[in-house]
Amino acid sequence: MSEDCIFCKIIANELPGEILYRDDRVTAFRDIQPATPVHVLIVPNKHIPSMNEATSEDEAVLGHMQLVAKKLAIKEGIAEKGYRLITNTGPEGGQVVYHIHLHLLGGKSMAGGLV
Ligand code: AMP
Fold first, then answer.
1. Is 22 part of a structural domain of the chain?
2. Tens-digit pLDDT profile for residues 41-98
3. Which residue range forms the structural domain that includes residue 12?
4. Does residue 114 form part of some domain?
5. How many domains does the chain have?
6. Is the beta carbon of 96 within 6 A of some atom in ligand 1?
7. Catalytic-residue membership of 101
């Protein structure tokens, strides 16, 4: 837990969040400013600031985040039409919150361009 991290506080129930999934390794909650009709953040319970700080020790949790995202895509009804999983890293990657997270985006077509 990092004292000044908003995602650590959501994980610890110290800040409100619409939690959709939680287990001993990850927590998933709705993004407060959804970019798409379905916008969920999947985060490790352990504070990892960004992909740049992730190590081989984090390999399992990073894979688990992807599989939890897949399950949530099914639950949210977007699996069949498709969705996007994004991890922004660093300033030019557009990262704002420095607790690694996977954006699950869907519910509208994003075909035709990546950026
Ligand atoms: P990023 O730009 O990849 O760091 O994404 C950070 C995301 O966190 C943005 O999409 C924000 O809307 C979202 N966010 C920031 N604060 C909260 C919060 N308290 N609860 C839920 N989502 C948040």
1. yes
2. 999 999 999 999 999 999 999 999 999 999 999 999 999 999 999 999 999 999 999 9
3. 6-106
4. no
5. 1
6. yes
7. yes
pLDDT exceeds cutoff 90 at 115? no
Is the beta carbon of 27 within 6 A of some atom in ligand 1?
A: no
Instruction: Out of 85, 96, 98, 115, give the residue to mutate to test ligand 1, the one with the largest number of ligand atoms within 8 Å of its CB.
Output: 96
**Contact in structure between 29 and 40 (CB atoms under 8 Å):** yes
Q: What is the CATH number of the domain that holds 19?
A: 3.30.428.10
Confirm if 45 and 25 have CB atoms less than 8 A apart: yes
Pick from 19, 39, 60, 11: nearest CA to 102 = 39
Cross-strand partners of 105: 39, 84
Residue 33 confidence (pLDDT) above 90? yes
